[in-house]
Amino acid sequence: MITVNVRVYSALNYYVRSLDRHKWFRLVITDGLTAAQLINALNIPEHEVMILRVNGKIANKEYVLYEDDSIELYPWLAGG
Prior knowledge:
The chain is mostly beta strands. The protein is globular. It has a five-stranded mixed sheet with strand order 2-1-5-3-4, covered by helices on one side. The mean pLDDT is 92. The protein has one helix and five strands, in the order ββαβββ.
């Protein structure tokens, strides 16, 4: 098991526990989990995530997570 830091933004907060909304939270996960598997474990529909950042850098959903990684999930954005 490893511990990672997670932050979800905007509408994605709907999918996480109310105590974890709008802030960083720590999560214990299985070693070797990918970002896509983490998204699914959080019950966030994968198609709702537009931007995934790991440790401040853009990453793809197949990235394998490591101890103390910081994961940020951003939804699709609209505007003009």
